[in-house]
Amino acid sequence: MASNSDKAGKGSRKRMSSPEIDGPLKRIKSEDGENGETKYNPYLAHMGEYKDKKDGYSNGSRHPEGSPLHGFARRQTTAEQAFVAEDGDNNPFTGEPHSQQYFAILKSRRNLPVHKQRQEFLDLYHKTQILVFVGETGSGKTTQIPQYVLYDELPHLNKKLVACTQPRRVAAMSVAQRVADELDVNLGEEVGYSIRFEDKTGPRTILKYMTDGMLLREAMHDHEMSRYSCIILDEAHERTLATDILMALLKQVAKRRPDLKIIVMSATLDAQKFQRYFYDAPLLAVPGRTHPVEIFYTPEPEKDYVEAAIRTVLQIHAVEDEGDILLFLTGEEEIEDTCRKISLEVDEMIRETDCGPMKVYPLYGTLPPHQQQKIFEPAPPPSRKGGRPGRKCIISTNIAETSLTIDGIVYVVDPGFSKQKIYNPRIRVESLLVSAISRASAQQRAGRAGRTKPGKCFRLYTEDAFKNELIPQTYPEILRSNLSNTVLELKKLGVQDLVHFDLMDPPAPETMMRALEELNYLACLDDEGELTDLGSLASEFPLDPTLAVMLIHSPEFLCSNEILSITSLLSVPQVFVRPANKRREADEMKNHFRHADGDHLTLLNVYHAFKGVVNQGGDPKKWCHEHYLSYRHLSSADNVRMQLKRIMETYEIDLVSTDFHDKNYYTNIRRALVTGFFMQVAKKENNKVYRTMKDNNQAVMLHPSTVLQTDYDWVVYNEFVLTTKQYVRTVTGIRPEWLLELAPTYYDIDSWEGQPDVKQALKAVAEKKRRRDAMKAGR
DNA sequence: GAGCACTGC
């Protein structure tokens, strides 16, 4: 142990005492970066052996007398033991004395509902491999359960981690910070988080919060998830694509790894479904801590939900007690519109009655962060002394249902609609549709009224509709998505038999077939459905297969630097900003970057200009503002670009450019686009209408935002947009002979079915090319 | 000549 005390004070954390604390081997390892010594200490060699002994670290002897964890046997601990250790002077995981703040937080932790059931939790945890845990909002499950697991798993002993997944990055980051505080450790040391672009964990990390997508990525290279001794899937009821795949995967891994424990945490609804899915796993339910919310329904269905919503909000403002209002609507335009209308109406009310002031705020995902922050401003004070209190009204998309929590909401107005993604496998198109929400969603919305005190929820539909028309749960994402990316991931994850892969809600066979077909055309899967080398490489990129394949092919066209930039820009939200009152100015600015051959090349021009400003030490923020570009999204594209570039370097994909003055500079890029987008091609039918290829076969128009000027008969497009009309967005002109040359399987004329005019046109192109080649040869 | 629910790698 002497070597440990020698080190005291040298590490990043000041070690005050307790050299006898367990884990010297670990500590030395983590600190040897300081002076480059003691990678291996022969006196401590025996401590590395416990791993090989079957039950070697469960006998308690690993924690010497005096250690807070003395007597703890892995997976045999009691809540009482943990309480004593938590109450101790020194932190069992770091050896440091506990801070004052620690004891203050500990007190509040013990008031959480979940605290009472710690022993019950441990009893179940000990006797089962998979556990379903159900806890309502406010139960403390997300912060406490992983800590209960830590005190029982003792992950510092077997060098395995406890992981807890979250659907969203912000949640992973903020919960990790909270738990680090609760455990009295520095974030990034014993407790860390891992999200895209940021890995805040270290050699000492024993508890890691991470996004579900991140764990899935890791699993692609470690099918056994061997770094973890316990995996906790939190918010499983949200049923993200990543969570669904992880659940199916973990079911398989659990069979191969009896030592791996799995906890699936969910909100109450549908708990039995999770239980059944996990072989009737035991279930532990913990009550939440929220205030009651009184629900009101309309007696008759409302014809116009926006109008009804406005009426309801004004009514609340006129007659209800103090408290803020949250109204759920479906999209940006609807929200901005309603904000204006309500503000005007309130102004009138103030003039005519003695009602208090009301601030109205919009809230949706694409709103810049500083404007999103405004919703947290306090409600306005009464307009005169002794007047009626003011309130704020937030008009929000679904973002306020799960992602953002606003305290102080007492009234919720729920018209019962949201925009939802749907996938039509027949024409391979994802689109957004305003649809009725589910009962689970309605309950979640109502719950937002009871966070700080008892609240009221006004549902703008009948009770009968709630009971009989709303579906119980929102369809999971996996049933509403194009699965090309997912299928490629599954193949990479080593799932051989997709048909029998045990997903909780298997997608439609047609959706699977479409994905397999698409991946086959992209040559990511061979004709037997096996992953090809190209497919394996493509799956390394956090991109849609189309983009990944294009990027991998791009060096052949001497433009991988440029395709890398374009790919990054296509992976972030629209970089062009178009404020409602300055559309003309914004469009004029956009024209500065216009490339006559299409939008992809225009994006590239924007990126080059942006980088030019950055590299010349200009003020990119100011420049973006002046040019109606989103600094946020351009920076994020730059971030994505760096990540993709690193992956390209790892797999030795050359980063090359054609000389800018070469006449083929842009042609090479357009040809490279075809290697990925050859299935997203539209051919001009008449002046306005284009038609997409093969069984997609849709009449589309070029989106009005396009800069494409030259009259191209053939275009590639990035996106199919279904709104009032069918549009293709982000389009670039191409030459049809490139299709025959670069995607010969897809554009095989002999096997071409349907679309006789397209077939005819392709035939003519092929014939022309043949003649030209013959002439060249004859010369 | 128009609109973009929300996440995630």
Q: Could you please describe the fold and organization of this structure?
A:
It contains 29 helices and 21 strands. It has four domains: 228 residues, P-loop containing nucleotide triphosphate hydrolases (Rossmann fold); 186 residues, 3-Layer(aba) Sandwich (Rossmann fold); 169 residues, Four Helix Bundle (Hemerythrin (Met), subunit A) (Up-down Bundle), CATH 1.20.120; 99 residues, no CATH class. It has an eight-stranded mixed β-sheet with strand order 4-3-5-2-6-7-1-8, sandwiched between helices. It is an alpha/beta fold and 779 residues long. The chain is 41% helix and 15% strand. Helix 6 crosses helix 8, helix 18 crosses helix 19 and helix 21 crosses helix 27. Strand 17 and strand 18 form a beta hairpin. The radius of gyration is 30 Å and the shape is globular. The longest helix has 23 residues. The N terminus is likely disordered. 41% of the residues are buried. The structure holds one DNA strand of 9 nucleotides. It is found in: Nucleus. This is RNA helicase.
